[in-house]
């Protein structure tokens, strides 16, 4: 466990400095849900938000099954079905993206164990309004066949 914790700390040091800032939902364009999928390059499993460095392959497409995926119930009123229907891949999405998840207490409430570099994940989220950086705040995280809502706790 100690070695694993050290790995997460060391990986977090390599994340861009801007990724460490806390961002409220109001800074994000909630009208444009984006779909990203790829392999985790780095993981920072710490508060105020867990953060990931996700490598997205060139030519990513929204999977045909995305609109029909089952989503978990959560305490916040999120129209997940609409987000899945409207999700698109950002133009030029290939490359590295910083992904902001929820605070650790919320991730623990969902029973999500710390992720590690090399894991494949998919997500739906939002970019900051007017920002040029490749950062996405995740609304839904897909790990294997499991979907996790990140706006609030499980209902």
Itemize the secondary structure elements and their pairings.
Blueprint: H1 2-13, E1 34-44, E2 51-56, H2 80-86, E3 95-100, H3 104-109, E4 120-127, E5 135-143, E6 146-149
Parallel strand pairs: 3-5
Antiparallel strand pairs: 1-2, 1-4, 2-3, 4-5, 5-6
Assign the structural class, choosing from mainly alpha, mainly beta, alpha/beta, alpha+beta, or little secondary structure: alpha+beta
Subunit arrangement of the protein? single chain
In round numbers, the mean pLDDT is 85
User: Which overall shape is indicated by the principal axes computed on the Cα atoms?
Assistant: globular
What percentage of amino acids are in beta strands? Answer: 25-35%
Strands of the widest sheet, in order across it, are 1-2-3-5-4
Weakly predicted, low-confidence segments: 1-23
Distance between the termini: 31 Å
Question: What would you say about this model in short?
Answer:
This protein is α+β, with helices and mostly antiparallel strands. It has 3 helices and 6 strands; from the N terminus they run αββαβαβββ. The chain is 16% helix and 28% strand.
What does this structure look like?
With 155 residues, the protein is α+β, with helices and mostly antiparallel strands. It is built from 3 helices and 6 strands. It has a 5-stranded mixed β-barrel with strand order 1-2-3-5-4. β1 (34-44) and β2 (51-56) form a beta hairpin. It is globular. The N and C termini lie far apart (31 Å).
């Amino acid at each position: 466990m100690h070695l694993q914790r050290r790995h997460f700390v060391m990986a977090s040091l390599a994340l861009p400095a801007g990724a460490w800032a806390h961002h409220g939902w109001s800074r994000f364009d909630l009208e444009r849900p984006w779909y990203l999928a790829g392999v985790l390059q780095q993981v920072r499993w710490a508060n105020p938000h867990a953060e990931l460095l996700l490598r997205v392959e060139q030519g990513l497409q929204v999977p045909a099954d995305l609109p029909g995926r089952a989503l978990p119930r959560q305490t916040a009123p999120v129209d997940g079905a609409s987000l899945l229907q409207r999700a698109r891949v950002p133009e030029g999405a290939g490359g590295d993206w910083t992904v902001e998840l929820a605070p650790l207490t919320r991730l623990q409430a969902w029973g999500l164990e710390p992720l590690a570099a090399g894991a494949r994940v998919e997500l739906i989220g939002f970019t900051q309004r007017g920002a040029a950086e490749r950062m996405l705040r995740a609304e839904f995280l897909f790990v294997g066949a499991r979907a996790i809502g990140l706006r609030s706790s499980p209902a």
